[in-house]
Each structure stands twice: as structure tokens, then as C-alpha cells.
Amino acid sequence: MKTGIAAFDDLMMGGLPRRRTTIVAGTPGSGKTVFATQFLSQGIMELDESGVFVTFEESPSEIEANMSTFGWEIGRWLLEEDWDILEPLLEEWSATTGAVLHELGDTVRFAYFPRGSSLISYFVVLSEGRAVETALIGREGAAGGIVSQGRLPAFTRAEVQVGGPFYRIELNSLEGAKKRSPTLRHLFARYADCLMAQIFQAIACNAVHSLEQGTVKWLLAAIERTGTVDRSYPGAALGDAGRGAQLSQPHHT
User: Fold this and answer.
1) Among 89, 238, 227, residue whose Cα is nearest residue 161
2) Are 4 and 10 in contact (CB under 8 A)?
3) 175 SS3 class
4) What would the pLDDT profile of 216-245 be if each residue is shown by its tens digit?
5) Phi, psi of 75 (to 5 degrees)
6) Is the dihedral of CA 209, 211, 213, 216 positive or negative?
7) Higher pLDDT residue, 96 or 182?
8) CA angle 54, 241, 155 (to 5 degrees)
């Protein structure tokens, strides 16, 4: 299988073996990320294939900036007709820190896309009212009806961790857009996979990290998603980060 990287394909007598998992390993700075992004970009631009890039270190904006230096403009890979479908459906919206987007069992009406430094957290609410954070979402992702389809009941609480601007879209409209565009349908399906990968990684890290390591991990994740370091994050979010339980105060209705 050709990678689109001419020198590598020549060296490997045609490229990578098909139907095999290939691990690219090397020391820091050896070019693993560049290799992966060139492989994806060549597949998209030359072979009309889809791909997914899961990152646990560099933020999506950093990946995009690095790729652009090589001429790989990922912002242009979504076809103009797909933007024409989606853009009129997006509503500019804002929320303050602590705003609850939905609670367990609520009917989910909107999908929310954080912009700028806005953050959303998913929380599992325990029987005593304590809430444990399970995922942190910034400008790289979305929340609300993304994993499931349509207006299904929420399986957890979604809360604004850092207030600011968002886009939101009514889920019926989003489902209609995905039906009209295979590209959008594929992107949202792959994002659901990426969100699951984030949760798996968080579970593994929480099992082995100390209190200090867990707190630093949460702060780094927040900084990657907001793009800033000069911010005091909510104390509740950091309260028990090292044990994998970023806490939120109980909400009363």
C-alpha cells in the first residue's frame, strides 16, 4: 500500500503491507508525527481516502499549524459543499462557567462546539451527589448528541468548565446535514471514536498517576484546549484530579 511518501515507498518496495497494523516508533524529534501527517495528507489529497489523527500531546491547533508549514492545509479538506450544508445551521452562542448543558436523562436538543478558550466537561454523578469528570472537551471537539444520534436521553451531565463562545446546532438539523453529506457523517463518527479513545487513555492514566501527576495532566489538557496558560481554572475541576475525579458541586433543581 503506497504511503504517498516517494522515498519511503521506494525503500519499502511499494509501501506498507496491506491489512496489517504498522507501528512507527522512534526517539523524540525523529519525525514520527511528520511521517504520520504526510501519510494522512497524501491519502486525502491524492487518493481521496479518509483518515483520523488521535493526539494525546500536541493540541489540534498545534498539529494544524505544523501541517500548514508543509503545505498540508487541513482546513480546506472539508469540501466547500459540506461547509455550505453545515454553516447556515450553526448558531453563535455563549455560556458562563458552571452552566449545565444537560443532566443525566435529559433529552439532548443541541450539539455544542467550544470556541476560543471555552471548555466543556462530562461528569458522571454519583449517588451521594458528587460528580466525577470523565472527559474534557475544547475547541478540538463537540458535546451533546455526538456519540449517540438524535434526541436520545443524556447518559451523563455536560457542564461548561470554562465559559465563553460556542457554536451550537439543533440535533435534528445536524442529523439532516449528515444524511446529505457522507463526509460530515464520517467526521462525526470518527470523532466519537476519538472521544472514546480519550476516555480509555484517561482511565489508564488515572490508575497509575499520583495526585501531582494527575493534576498536571488535567492542567496540560486544559492549556492545550484553551491555548493559554494565564487562567485560573475552577477549583472544583482540580479538587481531586490526581485520583481521576475532578469534582463538581451537586446541582439542585
Assistant:
1) 238
2) no
3) helix
4) 777 777 777 776 665 555 554 554 444 444
5) -65, -20
6) positive
7) 96
8) 65
Mean pLDDT of 146-165: 79
Cell of 174: 445536524
Residue for cell digits 498536571? 216
* Helix boundaries (H) for the chain: 6-11, 32-47, 60-68, 80-86, 171-180, 182-208, 211-226, 235-238
Q: What is the pLDDT of residues 83-141, one digit of tens each?
A: 889 889 999 999 999 999 999 888 889 999 999 889 999 988 888 878 888 888 888 88
- Record the pTM: 0.62
The β-bridge partners of 165 are: 94
Dihedral sign for Cα atoms in the order 157, 54, 90, 64: positive
Whether the Cβ atoms of residue 66 and residue 37 lie closer than 8 Å to each other: yes
Residues of the chain by 3-state class (helix, strand, coil), percent to 5: 40, 20, 40
Mean local confidence (pLDDT), 157-180: 92
Cell numbers for 78, please give them: 472539508
Cβ atoms 159, 143 nearer than 8 A: no
The rounded distance, in Å, linking the Cα atoms of 96 and 15 is: 50
